[in-house]
Design goal:
Blueprint lengths: L4 E6 L4 H15 L3 E6 L9 H4 L6 H19 L3 E4 L11 H14 L3 E4 L8 H17 L15 E5 L13 E4 L4 H10 L7 H18 L12 E6 L9
Parallel strand pairs: 1-2, 1-4, 2-3, 4-5
Antiparallel strand pairs: 5-7, 6-7
């Protein structure tokens, strides 16, 4: 196993691209193996462009969404991508699916995890994904779950930026400079042909977060320049020996 691993739990097959594609590519470049779990293809609620085509079927939408996600994963140098195919609108995760995610968590043993924000009234699939991710993280820490398996430690969980930030009670406390890998994130974004209307939005979001990165990285006039960044909100306290 590499020195560092990461796990992304994405409600739908495009979420990991928009919201943390830069973090994935940057850490992959540093030798971190990043695994992505897509709970759903987003075939019902996030594939309007495909459904507007004549003769479209649910299976065809799923196939196209999977192709897009796999292409984006290659662009970002994702180590492994798993598709749980749990449906969407509504996304439903029963106990078997939760144990399946626990198995992935224990297999990956992530140094950190990334997933959705706590609150999202526009898309309940997103906030349910966080709830389930935290639940499965806790199960993966339990010595009594599948005794004999290695038990998960306490990886930080980072909540990536939702689409309408002001409505989501999401407050970033981490800004990550993704300028060195922006070309890879942009290539991954362009793989998501079914949601082309979001491309420019997430480019603008990365530019805005780069401004926040610079203003917080040493003062308003002395901060390090960045062209593109991503913001995250950490769930758990950090343990340090000095400030």
């Amino acid at each position: 196993m590499p020195d560092k691993t990461a796990l992304v739990v994405s409600a739908h097959s495009a979420d990991f691209v928009w919201r943390c594609g830069g973090a994935i590519a940057l850490h992959a470049e540093k030798g971190c193996d990043v695994t992505v779990v897509c709970l759903s293809y987003g075939e019902r609620g996030e594939s309007a462009k495909l459904w507007k085509q004549g003769g479209m079927t649910l299976d065809r939408v799923k196939t196209e969404r999977r192709k897009e996600a796999e292409a984006a994963a290659r662009a970002l140098d994702v180590h492994d991508i798993r598709f749980f195919d749990l449906g969407d609108y509504p996304l439903v995760m029963d106990q078997d699916a939760k144990f399946r995610l626990v198995d992935v968590i224990r297999e990956v043993m992530p140094s950190f995890m990334l997933t959705h924000s706590t609150w999202d009234p526009y898309n309940p699939d997103h906030m349910l994904t966080l709830q389930w991710t935290l639940e499965c993280r806790a199960i993966a820490q339990a010595w009594g779950h599948n005794p004999g398996q290695a038990v998960l430690g306490a990886p930080q969980v980072y909540l990536f930026e939702p689409h309408q930030t002001e409505q989501m009670n999401w407050k970033p406390d981490v800004f990550l400079d993704i300028t060195p890998v922006w070309d890879r994130k942009w290539a991954a974004i362009q793989c998501m042909q079914g949601q082309e209307h979001l491309w420019s939005f997430y480019r603008n979001a990365a530019e805005n977060r780069a401004n926040h990165f610079q203003r917080n990285s040493g003062g308003q006039s002395g901060g390090r320049a960045a062209k593109y960044a991503e913001g995250f909100q950490s769930v758990f306290p950090r343990t340090v020996d000095e400030l």
